[in-house]
């Protein structure tokens, strides 16, 4: 497989930030190209990622994805540049429009014009990168600007954008250096790549200039049915309970009836019924779940989609440490 392998880990799976660094060491030893973590309502990502960067030598370090509502644009630029220094140039910064729940119920902000805000944050970050100042006049932000005390950066970290919809993905192509989508079938991803390419052209770039790293969540186990049950529960929950965006995206990829049934079960808070409403064929489209051989083949096929540069593999709910190790080892054979 020519595509790289990224490992996505969830901070909530660990008792101490140092354990994220231990996972990063495992990932590097197995041959993964990059480690990435998300940030929602748990730990701040910076300490565990800094530890991971410090204790590895070649492993790329990323985040999936920071909210543009949780920090000021200048602080996001400071964070990205600090992480790039800590990782000796191996860092990629990830940002996405976020969601109403995280924005309003955690950060206490109004979920207003998320795409415009994401674009302006990226532009302000680039001002700090390239000019050494956040000075900016936009629709949302007006910043007179002070000088970044370290000056313009000679090696700023690339900016990856996590999006789902057509206009958002066009924005990612136009203003980002990479794209990190999630919950796409192979055909759905190919269709959305057209939007990414259109955005790249608007930004004076080629599609090949962007690092395309779709996120998939799966599990490998010799107990095939147990693995599929765990993946089914996680994917169904994401479609029905994670707000509207994942469900709407998968519905638009050809499964509106499936999403409607899962959402109806979530209205009753019936997670068993949610899982039962996710058919085998749709699970197979969205997640690598089964024996190590099946998972390895699924990831290989996904990585062969034209324009995909990396497959970013994350875990599902309910996995034991043995499950995680088996999954990592199965996928790492592709490295």
From TrEMBL:
<dbReference type="InterPro" id="IPR050564">
    <property type="entry name" value="F420-G6PD/mer"/>
</dbReference>
<dbReference type="InterPro" id="IPR036661">
    <property type="entry name" value="Luciferase-like_sf"/>
</dbReference>
<keyword id="KW-0560">Oxidoreductase</keyword>
<dbReference type="InterPro" id="IPR011251">
    <property type="entry name" value="Luciferase-like_dom"/>
</dbReference>
<dbReference type="InterPro" id="IPR023909">
    <property type="entry name" value="F420_NP1902A"/>
</dbReference>
<feature type="domain" description="Luciferase-like">
    <location>
        <begin position="15"/>
        <end position="304"/>
    </location>
</feature>
<dbReference type="GO" id="GO:0016705">
    <property type="term" value="F:oxidoreductase activity, acting on paired donors, with incorporation or reduction of molecular oxygen"/>
</dbReference>
<protein>
    <submittedName>
        <fullName>TIGR04024 family LLM class F420-dependent oxidoreductase</fullName>
    </submittedName>
</protein>
<dbReference type="Pfam" id="PF00296">
    <property type="entry name" value="Bac_luciferase"/>
</dbReference>
């Amino acid at each position: 497989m020519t595509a790289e392998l990224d490992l996505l880990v969830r901070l909530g799976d660990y008792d101490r930030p140092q354990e994220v660094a231990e996972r990063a060491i495992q990932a590097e030893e197995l041959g993964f190209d990059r480690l990435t973590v998300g940030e929602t309502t748990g730990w701040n990502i910076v300490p565990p990622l800094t530890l991971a960067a410090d204790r590895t030598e070649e492993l790329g370090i990323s985040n999936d994805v920071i909210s543009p509502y949780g920090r000021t644009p200048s602080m996001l630029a400071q964070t990205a540049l600090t992480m790039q220094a800590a990782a000796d140039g191996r860092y990629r910064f990830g940002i996405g429009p976020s969601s109403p729940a995280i924005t309003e119920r955690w950060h206490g902000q109004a979920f207003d014009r998320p795409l415009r805000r994401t674009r302006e944050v990226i532009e302000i970050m680039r001002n700090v990168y390239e000019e050494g100042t956040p000075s900016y006049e936009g629709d949302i932000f007006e910043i007179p600007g002070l000088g970044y005390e370290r000056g313009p950066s000679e090696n700023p970290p690339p900016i990856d954008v996590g999006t789902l919809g057509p206009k958002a993905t066009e924005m990612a192509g136009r203003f980002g250096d990479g794209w990190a989508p999630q919950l796409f079938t192979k055909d759905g991803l190919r269709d959305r790549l057209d939007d990414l390419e259109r955005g790249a052209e608007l930004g004076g770039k080629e599609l090949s200039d962007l690092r395309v790293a779709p996120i998939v969540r799966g599990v490998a186990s010799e107990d095939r049915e147990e693995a599929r049950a765990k993946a089914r529960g996680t994917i169904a929950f994401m479609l029905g309970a994670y707000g509207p965006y994942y469900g709407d995206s998968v519905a638009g990829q050809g499964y509106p009836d499936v999403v409607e049934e899962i959402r109806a079960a979530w209205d009753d808070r019936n997670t068993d019924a949610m899982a039962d409403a996710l058919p085998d064929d749709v699970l197979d489209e969205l997640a690598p779940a089964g024996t190590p051989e099946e998972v390895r083949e699924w990831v290989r096929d996904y990585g062969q989609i034209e324009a995909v540069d990396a497959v970013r593999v994350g875990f599902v709910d309910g996995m034991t440490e043995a499950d995680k190790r088996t999954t990592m080892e199965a996928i790492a054979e592709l490295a």
